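From the shared-data thread, chain only:
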Amino acid sequence: MNSGVLYLVATPIGNYQDITFRALEVLRSVDVIVFEERKEANRLLNHFKIEKAVESLNEHNELVATEIIISLLKNGKNIALISDCGTPLFSDPGQLLVKKCIDLKIKITPLPGASSLMPALTVSGFSIEQFFYYGWLSPKRERRISELQKLKRETRTFVIMDTPYRLVQVMRDINDVLGGNRKICVAFNLTLQDEEIFHGTAGQLFKLFASTEKKGEFVIVVDGAK
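Structure, as tokens:
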């Protein structure tokens, strides 16, 4: 029996109209859909009226879930992996599954689609001929400051992400470590009705967010050191 195919399916980061025709076709045709969190997956699948067998794969069950999914693939089942939103494996579990599929020569098909990274970079106004995706800073301030100190002399545009409730703290530390004049772009709630794009210096944006206490999904794009 031939192995099934693992599809890595990008899903909308907020606006469901951003899903691709191909993503919908795959989600409707596979045997099993693997999700990260049930609530988010149910919301997406119910919206598009998709009913499928499902499995969960998250940071708590990754080892066991990976073996279950590999077994299904070996038995010829086609499987779609989705994250809570956006492109799978970006700050999400699934890397172990992909590595095992590569080792076992199980076919993997990645489907391009929604991601917060590229929209934030393109709207920043900074040079993106070369850029550096740093991802998530440490939730502990002492370590976060140490990470920012290492980034201080990075000459490429770089991207930082964090949880919705930590925007003010992260901007405070960027202001303190990189300096109040460092140019920043914050893409806030991308693709949603309350989407906002903020351009300014670290000092200006820290003051703005500290006074408004904005909470939501965000991507911070930092201009490289000059």
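The mean pLDDT is 94.
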